[in-house]
Amino acid sequence: MEIKRYHIGLTQWGYKEWKGTFFREDAKPEFFLNQYSSVFNSVEGNTTFYRVPSKETVIKWGDQVPDHFKFCFKFPQSITHYKRLKDVHDEVLYFLELFNPIRTKLGPFHIQLSSQFSFQEFEKLEKLIELLPSHFRYAVEVRHPDFYDKGKNERAYEQLLKSYHVNRVVFDTRRLHSLKKEDQTIKEAQQKKPQTPVRFHSTADHPFIRFVGANDVLNNEAYLKEWAIIIADWIKDGKHPYMFIHAPNTLYAPVLARYFHRELSHLIDVNPLPVFPIDREEKQLGLF
Predict the structure, then answer these.
(1) What is the DSSP string of 93-148?
(2) All domains of the chain in start order, with CATH
(3) 0.90 cut: is pTM over it?
(4) Mean pLDDT, 10 residues at a time, over the chain (288 residues)?
């Protein structure tokens, strides 16, 4: 069943520890994407941050997902972190060209800048956004405090995004950084994930939210309910949001995403989230 009106997904599609909790027990890696996309209709394509794929690989990915599925591939770190957007014209266009064969299965490209990329480098961001082909969608994530000054810097940044219909990435780590748990996965996530301010307004038609909190539903409940209200309002306003659920321990992310979708469905008409592959397997076994 297709989930309509918004897109929801996780940070990856190939987490092998999901076998037996999300994937079928007998799932092989070559079928992970197919099983993942039978439930969720989007995914953060973090793999492209570390390595640029071949066109053949891109086509293979596209062939494994339904027509309504959207990949949100991340710009390579060579562009955003190593070169810091300087002299990247050819590299950017080459990267985007790779995805033309699956362009109907693309959500916004995720352009994540390093925490050291300050407003002093704003001109490079302007040049990049001016360069981006308009037949794709984009979402920009900034982490430096300069961009959250509630003053001229932030206004200039928002105006740039709005002018080119580029979405703002909101990375909500409030719950994660409020936790006092001894769980090692939480400690590691707190060390790795930034504490950027959260903004609840969008700059384009596809608001892009990344949420990371605790590993269990109960400790995320208030924050996910809050996002359900905001996303429901965006949908009512004609926007098409993207919601990505993280967990310090990736094992628990599918359950958290399912909870969020249920909360959203209480506020606005969205199709039910399909049953997890492992649950389908168990139901089939129960017939015999």
Answers:
(1) HHHHHTTGGGGGGB--EEEEPPTT--GGGHHHHHHHHHHS-TTS-EEEE--SGGGG
(2) 7-285 (3.20.20.410)
(3) yes
(4) 89 97 96 98 97 97 97 98 97 98 98 97 98 97 97 98 98 96 90 95 97 97 98 97 98 98 97 95 49
